[in-house]
């Protein structure tokens, strides 16, 4: 049995104490630095950077100089990447035909670095102010990025719904994002997205100097703040920034306040979790309504993402070797489970984590353990994609570093981030690779030329070493495990005010954030407190609409974004027309199969 070594304890534990954060609202001048204004008209626009739907479907826009792209080029590519990371824009997916539009929306952007009280690193905030702002509606939609993406990470939901109807949109990267810092060149990301050397400009993320440190520092992992605990505050600051920038964008209509401007908060995945956190912290009635789509949210007594992800990383490879998954997308390679998954069963048996004398019995035992922990059968099946793409390990490694306030030199379980050469050996990133991080990266490596290294050995199941260590940080009894669990506890969402209009939407086949652990648990807590939001359950919907364009995968599922747009429509009718909040419901959906998606398959009219 391989030993789990936690050499980082002495470095991180002192930083893991919960810091008090005042709930008193700050004035904008107290939390925002320099504001950058940019104009986007003509060949450019707010919603697609001038690409339109056809351009968003095409390959990523090229840089004229790969080593030194302009701010406009970086913005265009970041918007392209954010759309394609969230929406199914494939030819069979129906975007632009069955649901969704991408019109040209001219206007201006205002962005800045903002900071919550006590934070070491800023979060990026951005307002999109359309020229055709509806002065009669006075609407501000506020959204946090999905996943750990950059500041445009919610544009396919919030921007696509709000901008065409004349609403302004305020975004935040919620303290994560793609502002990677390169330790070899000592450079980070400036306000306009270009790279700058330490000390030459305010940077999106600037870790402390570490002697002889090499590789890449990731904002979500290394900010030193546990940003997830502040996601709600990031959203509320973005809302206040948005209102202040509306004064600047439309001075004839100023001032804009929560009393005379409808403030709608929305988001997908982590962005939806941030929206619900914000709702729970909104003591001043800033927010008028919330739509949360597939939220990563946990309430006291529930199972948070780190618990579920580290368990999935450990057990799912073995569980998915069961014969019932032989026809499941991504569960087989040339008709057989990946060899490392088969080796995982033996490894788990050796550690006493599953029973059975053969691989078949061991797979069933792993399945039984997952079910006992609350996993639904369909979520397990869909999770084959996340398992095949090694997402569980990537997520758990980044979140563990964040929860333990790790530096690039003290990431738990021996992990680190770096660019690599053709043999997989760490090397310094070249200028073109560094330049594209802000536009292309998802905020959690691997990706955009940055690899997740360490936590492996030369066995038949090489990643089990690091995964066991990550799991031990959740269910272990050491000081690091206690510190990590304390950080996770600080991320629990508080319940919102009783009269807040709230619509929660979740796919029943979500294999990354299973409904049972997130939306269903959150709605259950609201119900127990005699607060009854609209809870929309979507059969045959999973977490990643972008995955639906992959061959053989979209045949089984419907997209989730149409239900987000429909929920925002319903919330708008509630706020503007006084219509009742729609009822909770379970939609009758039909997977598209091998053909193109049709409107009837979504069940929205039934």
Can you characterise this structure?
This protein is α/β, with parallel strands linked by helices and 606 residues long. The protein has 18 helices and 17 strands. The protein has helices at 9-12, 28-31, 52-57, 71-86, 155-162, 219-222, 231-249, 270-281, 305-319, 339-350, 359-372, 377-388, 391-403, 431-440, 464-475, 479-489, 519-528, 561-577, and strands at 36-40, 107-114, 123-130, 139-144, 168-172, 181-182, 187-189, 195-197, 216-217, 262-268, 289-293, 416-420, 426-427, 451-453, 502-507, 534-538, 585-586. The strands form four sheets. It has a ten-stranded mixed beta sheet, sandwiched between helices. Strands 13-12-14 form a three-stranded antiparallel beta sheet, with no helix packed on it. It has a two-stranded antiparallel sheet with strand order 6-9. Strand 7 and strand 8 (195-197) form a beta hairpin. Helix 9 (305-319) runs antiparallel to helix 13. It is globular, with a radius of gyration of 23 Å. It starts with 8 loop residues before the first helix and ends in a 20-residue tail after the last strand.
């Amino acid at each position: 049995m391989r030993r789990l070594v936690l050499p980082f304890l002495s470095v991180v534990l002192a930083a893991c104490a919960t810091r008090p954060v005042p709930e008193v609202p700050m004035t904008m001048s107290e939390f925002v630095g320099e504001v950058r204004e940019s104009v986007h008209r003509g060949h450019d626009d707010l919603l697609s950077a001038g690409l339109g739907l056809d351009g968003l479907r095409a390959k990523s826009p090229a840089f004229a100089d790969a080593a030194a792209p302009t701010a406009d080029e970086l913005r265009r590519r970041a918007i392209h990447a954010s759309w394609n990371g969230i929406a199914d824009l494939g030819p069979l997916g129906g975007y632009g035909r069955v649901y969704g539009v991408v019109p040209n929306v001219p206007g201006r952007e205002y962005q800045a670095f903002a900071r919550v009280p006590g934070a070491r690193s800023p979060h990026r905030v951005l307002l999109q102010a359309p020229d055709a702002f509806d002065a009669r509606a006075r609407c501000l939609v506020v959204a946090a990025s999905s996943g750990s993406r950059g500041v445009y990470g919610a544009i396919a939901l919030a921007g696509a719904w709000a901008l065409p109807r004349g609403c302004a949109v305020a975004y935040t990267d919620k303290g994560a994002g793609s502002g990677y810092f390169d330790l070899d060149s000592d450079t980070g990301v400036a306000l306009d997205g270009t790279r700058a050397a330490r000390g030459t400009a305010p940077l999106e993320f600037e870790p402390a100097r570490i002697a002889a440190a090499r590789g890449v520092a990731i904002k979500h992992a290394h900010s030193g703040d546990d940003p997830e605990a502040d996601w709600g505050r990031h959203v509320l600051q973005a809302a206040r920034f948005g209102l202040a920038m509306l004064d600047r964008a439309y001075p004839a209509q100023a001032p804009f306040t929560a009393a005379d401007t409808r403030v709608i908060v929305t988001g997908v995945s982590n962005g939806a979790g941030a929206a619900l956190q914000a709702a729970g912290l909104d003591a001043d009635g800033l927010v008028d309504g919330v739509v949360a789509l597939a939220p990563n949210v946990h309430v006291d007594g529930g199972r948070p993402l780190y618990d579920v992800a580290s368990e999935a990383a450990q057990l799912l490879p073995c569980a998915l070797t069961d014969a019932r998954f032989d026809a499941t997308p991504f569960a087989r390679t040339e008709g057989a489970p990946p060899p490392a998954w088969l080796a995982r069963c033996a490894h788990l048996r050796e550690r006493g984590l599953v029973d059975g004398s053969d691989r078949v019995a061991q797979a069933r035992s792993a399945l039984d353990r997952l079910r006992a922990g609350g996993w639904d059968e369909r979520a397990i099946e869909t999770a084959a994609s996340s398992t095949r793409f090694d997402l569980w390990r990537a997520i758990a490694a980044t979140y563990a570093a964040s929860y333990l306030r790790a530096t690039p030199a003290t990431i738990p379980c021996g992990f680190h981030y770096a660019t690599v050469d053709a043999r997989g050996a760490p090397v310094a990133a070249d200028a073109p690779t560094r330049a594209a991080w802000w536009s292309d990266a998802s905020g959690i490596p691997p990706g955009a030329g940055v690899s997740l290294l360490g936590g492996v050995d030369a066995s038949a199941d090489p990643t089990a070493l690091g995964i066991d260590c990550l799991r031990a940080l959740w269910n272990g009894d050491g000081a690091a495990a206690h510190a990590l669990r304390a950080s996770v506890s600080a991320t629990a969402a508080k319940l919102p005010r009783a009269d807040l209009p709230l619509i929660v939407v979740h796919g029943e086949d979500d294999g990354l954030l299973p409904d049972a652990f997130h939306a269903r648990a959150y709605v259950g807590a609201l119900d127990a407190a005699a607060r009854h939001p609209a809870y929309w359950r979507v059969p045959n919907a999973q977490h990643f609409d972008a995955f639906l364009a992959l061959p053989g995968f979209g045949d089984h599922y419907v997209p989730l974004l149409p239900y987000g747009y429909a929920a925002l429509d319903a919330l708008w009718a509630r706020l503007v027309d006084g219509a009742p909040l729609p009822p909770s419901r379970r939609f009758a959906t039909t997977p598209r199969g091998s053909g193109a998606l049709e409107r009837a398959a979504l069940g929205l009219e039934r």
